[in-house]
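Encode chain A's predicted structure.
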Amino acid sequence: MSTLRRLTIITFLCLLPNAFGQRADALTFVYGGNREAKLISNDNSTTIQSWSAVAGSYSAHMSDSGSVWHTSGGGFGGGWGGSGGDCSVFGASYENILEVDWNGNTIRTITKEQLGGGNPHHAITLTENGTVLAIVAERYNNACGERLVEYDPKQNKVIWAWHTNDHEGTNNPRKLKRGSDSNDPYHINNIDLNVHTNQITFTSHNVFEVFVIDRSIDSTTAKGTAGDLLWRMGNPGNYGVSGKQHINGAAHSARWVKKGVPGEGNIIFLANQSPVNSNYATGYEVIPKYSLGSNGEWEYEIVFSGTNNNSQFMNSGGIDKVYNGNYVITYPNENYTAYEYDYTKGATQDKSMTVATWSSVGQNGAHRYPVCGGRLLAGVKANDPEAIALNNQACANYNYSSSSSVVELSSSSTIEWPSSSSTFMSISATINQSNILVHVNKNHITLNNLTSNARINVMDLHGVVKYSGVIQNNQLELNASSWKSGTYFIHIEKSNQIIYRQVIRVYN
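Encoded structure for chain A:
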């Protein structure tokens, strides 16, 4: 069966920001608690879309296609821990992982049975590989614990699993120490995969730590010592050493800094009720070092700590790092307020150094997407008049060079390859804007008539750089065959002026 790929090229009035040291120009996606998920405009004045079906979900993520993935559940009722042999977290209402479309209609359900049984709770993560990471409470080896799983929606099955109960020990820096609650010893609440290093990071609420494990090994190998911890931080007393305890309360929101973002490969996380006293919550960025110090503590370097007094709420909050290097930290104790910190203002920050705030948002986190558009960038067809109107409104305040122009392509400009017919067809299209020619043929994009010594950047929806370089010749060919479905931006500048920008939508 042939693979169908479709690529649509759209040009519109939107400028990717290239300046650092200021608020990111981006859409804001907020979620958590009993509040609906929202996509908020760049100036924080307009809710572009909301998803009431997501209210009550602890974790939600917007995909590149504009759908929203989230955990099921009816709020925070149902209790913690287990009873009568049940090791569920958040109660039995948390049984499924759901995907809803732009209008809130459920288009996919992953049941707990499909995940291997047990209670999927707290966090899910959409990986760059197109898979879903989930946390599942389970009884394993006759004790309550957690299972980390990777689920492939294309294959409709779990392709990898890792069990906490396989990796427990005493005073061992590579082993887990169980918390005091026998029904809920770890309470893992976030998980993320670095596809470039094949490592997973996750945070544990009940043992006050952030961890790293190896994803490159298979599920069977992961049961043995090869699946033990590669690195940890937060509470060195758990393995019997005297290092500094940076996490005195819960830990949340462990994530890798994405490739192409300043600090790529580092880990960010939120330490609730830490580190000074219970009145504080601190967002960290650290460089993990996979070696033990002389005192037996895993080594690390702290490159950022953003602390906020009177934001100590134990059970939620989050941190994210924006494409331009800024940090967005959600403090639920302050009417669910998120702050964006300017990363150029130093490694230690407080609220006086913020460049943007969002109040009354979801309690578990906020993500910012490096675009000025609206529905157009959330999976609605390019010829949707409402989408174009929203996009133009959102981007109306940007300044452009005189050479800029707008080209709105009809649906006839959609290019498909290979052809669904038995005979392969080489289909191409050429667009002329600002004297730059764009030629699409098969899965290659060729730019002609380029200005030498200009800089070109290609980024995805999250600001991850796919290509960056200085133009030496008048032609550049980009191979899009490995690009996953989603939105990409071509952005060319010279002498601090944007001379060309394109949005590319790729569908697999």
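Residues 377-507 form a domain with the Immunoglobulin-like fold (CATH 2.60.40.10).
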